[in-house]
Amino acid sequence: MQNSLPTILGTGLSGLIGSKISDLYQDKYNFVNLDISHPTNPVDITHFDQVKRALDTEAEYVLHCAAFTDVTKAWEQKDDTSGLAYKVNVLGTQNIVAACQQTGKHLLHISTAYVFDGEKEGLYSESDLTSPIEWYGQTKALAEEAVQASNGAWTILRIDQPFRSDPFPRKDLVHRVISGLENDSLPPLFINHFFGPTFIDDFAQVIDWVIRTKTTGLFHASSGEKWTDFEFGKAIQTALNLSGEVKPGKLEDYLKKLSRPYQRNTALDNSKLVTALDFELTPIREALRLVR
């Protein structure tokens, strides 16, 4: 039965986002994880020959979730094209783009709001020019450029602060807040920093929609909402009826201890996506009630 399902080749399918997508849609698609740690068929995306060999199948789609996402560690590698952040995010994506072109595959590329500088007051739209201010964002912007330069089929989906309904070994923002409240270790949360959370369970539906409809282009695929860290923390506490204290803090106090640039606003306008979707996204307050 498994072999009769459409095959999705994926990178990062064991990560926070990819594992949730493959779990929710395991009965609809046959997911093949292209991973360097695979016991029998390892694939290092920084080596084109390995990527090309892995993509040389009849599968129609490649879901590219893998990325070096530690923003602080990426900053420590600033301008280092031999560093892991650049090699995974840029070189790896370039290899996947080239292999997709040669094998005729539709590439679904997961990107980030960190391609923007964070200075806009309102929500970032797809028409806003990228202007990254730190190395992680720069590498992801370069990756986007590689995808957009492709003459094959591609879809770029930008997200921000993803969280899922169930726990994962590497805690997302929501589960970090939950843990902080439960252990009385939650630091003050910013009242003057803004972001647009992405509910991964919904994002999985967006991936399915792209595949079902063969949609191409650039889309912002977050909630379309704008939150401060403090408001978000209070909403988590209310939704899950948690004890403990959510204390307000200011971004400026945090920046005094930080050595890298930090975007003040990464909230994304998702109206382009919402207009095209054939289902409704879950409002964040409702999504938080589904978290366990």
**Helical amount among residues, as a percent range?**
25-40%
Radius of gyration: 19 Å
Strand order of the largest sheet: 2-1-3-4-5-10
- End-to-end C-alpha gap: 32 Å
Give the total of beta strands.
12
**Highest CATH level, the class:** Alpha Beta
How many domains, in number, for the residues? 1
Percent in strands: 5-15%
Annotated CATH topology: Rossmann fold
Arithmetic mean of pLDDT: 97
Q: What does the overall shape look like?
A: globular
Profile the largest sheet.
Answer: 6 strands, parallel
Q: Give the uncertain stretches in residue-range form.
A: none
Counting DSSP H or I runs of 4 or more residues, the number of helices is: 11
Q: What is the subunit arrangement here?
A: single chain
CATH homologous superfamily grouping: NAD(P)-binding Rossmann-like Domain
Which CATH architecture would you pick? 3-Layer(aba) Sandwich
Structural class: alpha/beta
Structure description:
The protein has 11 helices and 12 strands. It has 292 residues and is an alpha/beta fold. The chain has a single domain (2-168, 197-225, 266-283), classed as Rossmann fold, CATH 3.40.50.720. The longest helix is centred in the first third of the chain and has 20 residues, at 84-103. The mean pLDDT is 97.
SSE blueprint:
Elements: E1 7-11, H1 16-24, E2 30-33, H2 48-55, E3 61-64, H3 71-75, H4 84-103, E4 106-112, H5 135-148, E5 154-159, E6 162-163, H6 173-182, E7 189-190, E8 194-195, E9 198-199, H7 200-213, E10 217-220, E11 227-228, H8 229-240, E12 248-249, H9 251-255, H10 271-276, H11 284-288
Parallel strand pairs: 1-2, 1-3, 3-4, 4-5, 5-10, 6-9, 7-12
Antiparallel strand pairs: 8-11
